[in-house]
Write a structure and sequence with these properties.
With 230 residues, the protein is an alpha/beta fold. The protein has 10 helices and 6 strands, in the order βαααααβαβααβαββα. Helix 1 packs antiparallel against helix 4 and helix 3 runs antiparallel to helix 4.
Amino acid sequence: MIRGLLLDFYGTVAAEDDPIVADICARAAALAGPPVTAQDIGHAWWRNFQRDMARYTGARFRSQRDIALRSLAEVLADFNLPGVPEELCAPQFEYWRRPEILPDAYAFLAGLAAVTPEIPVCVLSNIDRGDVLAAIAHHRLPLPTVVSSEDARCYKPDAKMFGAGLAALGLAAQQVLHIGDSLAADVRGARAAGIEMVWLNRAGRPVPADLPGLAVAGTLVEVLPRLTAA
């Protein structure tokens, strides 16, 4: 029986920052010119970013902003580019605080309040706590409970992130449903933690063969009957 909900934020409730990241990479590439491309920078930055999220946990934890800056600085150095990471990342950091909220998220939150007000919701996000709280406050979203990577000192898919979310809800894994858009961070992380998962797959991507039985929804609103049935 579902008694609580863990909810990813960026990519699930709010649109991802992909266009801003692409612009950062294009601006960085323009500092060098051919043969360095925005795609080269983007691939290297993402590789370093993912590596550092896995590396900097526990006592070594670093915030998402710090990781973004450090991983981009490493890329700039590798390509011998003169860009300043703080200047390049400023639009990204501002977006994290004032993101675009996806239309189906508004309908989903309204539906939750109308038909399942007894089910508590905890936002579970890798983005820094201050940025998530600022985004929620900016859009006046009814999401008072937030667990960020800063709270857990780790990043999804680390099981400690999901454990912190369960603790915030005061519920056991078998009582909770997690909704998220990332196969790596949300789906695999929740499954490893023994939490029922709905993959929010707005793009209609194929379900990986190694994830049999994965529940999939094309919009957040499609998840509401699953909660009301519970």
